[in-house]
Amino acid sequence: MAPEHVDVVVAGGGPAGASAAAILARHGHKVLLLEKERFPRFHVGESLLPAAWDLWDRLGVTAEIEDSNYVVKQGVNFGMFSEDQVTLLTAEYPEYFQRPYTYHVERAHFDELLLKNAERSGARVCQEWTVADVIMEEGRAVGVMAGANGEQPREIRARAVVDATGRNCLLARKLGLRKPDPVLNKISHFAHFTGAYRKLNDDPQFDESTMTDIHTIDGGWIWYIPLRDDVVSVGVVLDAKYAGHLKGPQARFDHAIADCPLVAEWMSGARQTTEMHTISNISYLNDSFVGDGYAMIGDASMFVDPIFSAGVTLAIRGGVFAADAIHDGIVNDDLSAARLRVYEDKIRLPMDRIFKMIRNWYGVLEKKDKRNNIFIRSQRIPLLRKRLIVLLSGGYDKVDLDAILRAAAQNEPGQAEGRMSLSTSID
Length: 427
Hints:
Blueprint lengths: L3 E8 L3 H12 L4 E5 L16 H8 L2 H5 L4 E10 L3 E6 L12 E3 L2 H14 L3 E4 L1 E9 L2 E9 L5 E10 L6 H6 L10 E9 L14 E9 L2 E7 L4 E9 H4 L5 H10 L2 H6 L4 E2 L4 E4 L3 E2 L4 E2 L2 E3 L5 E2 L7 H21 L5 H31 L6 H4 L4 H11 L8 H8 L19
């Protein structure tokens, strides 16, 4: 049987793949998106960022997202070492974003919304299809071997291949490009609950709004994210060395919750409604994201520790950037790595900035620095607070890390000249 020919094959239908497919299809290209699972499906990463509004406009899904009755998220609260509560609200600096709020979403619903949008945009979407391999000829991606789940894979030729296979990292594993981050060797356990305390903001603009709550514990931290319909997403992230002495995901999760009296109280009457999910070796970063005829996007290119909720925004942004680069390559009949690298250059800037912030966070936790860290000091230094809020709201291209460091190094009123703790270093 002669192979099928398309302009672009997108392997994977999560936020990155669906976004890339939508943009490419709207440019008039023949796009085939192959997704291994049947949507909707459970996925972690429910807390979004205000920087996503511009991306949703580009994809044409803003109105649909607004109509989905998601819980409004106005910021993040850090419970630092059971002593200090640091609340950072995007509304404090609304001029940096289209709207100073975002949403907590059920990823099963949100991801399906984006996938359907790709189909409406003109991409052909095949669910329950497995991409078994990427076809390489003389170092160039020229198609995939794929088929409906359980069937023999067949050849599909394409001018460009987009790997959006998530943590499976199809191309990165094939080419030996996937590199775990030894500094961020963490393990996470998470589930959904009903009947837990719902921490809501007192805001006349919204009937119900909330924040993402982050609480530090011995060896890691806890997230607490209220969703629609009385559901709360709760997860723990632990250093792999610390987690080793506890046997089993549920035992590790329960031990971590018990280590935070406030969250334990919030969950005292809760009922677990999903199985306990686990992700190990959380963070990794590929050596490169592009090559001749291919691009890796979303979790197929990198996996970001969830502490600052950057994953979905980076995935969608990467999908859009990659689609723009591939469209330009098709128009100019040049899909070389050099031509596609414009996508990688654009996504590495925000990625590098958030990775450095993540490393700083774990430096604070490791040192148990309760007073002299960026998060606590942001309560007392206005310029630092502003820059930190903009960065953590997804404004990676709006805030220079050096500027944050300069603000963090300022003396507080009445404070003598002195050297900052290493926990204020983001390098």
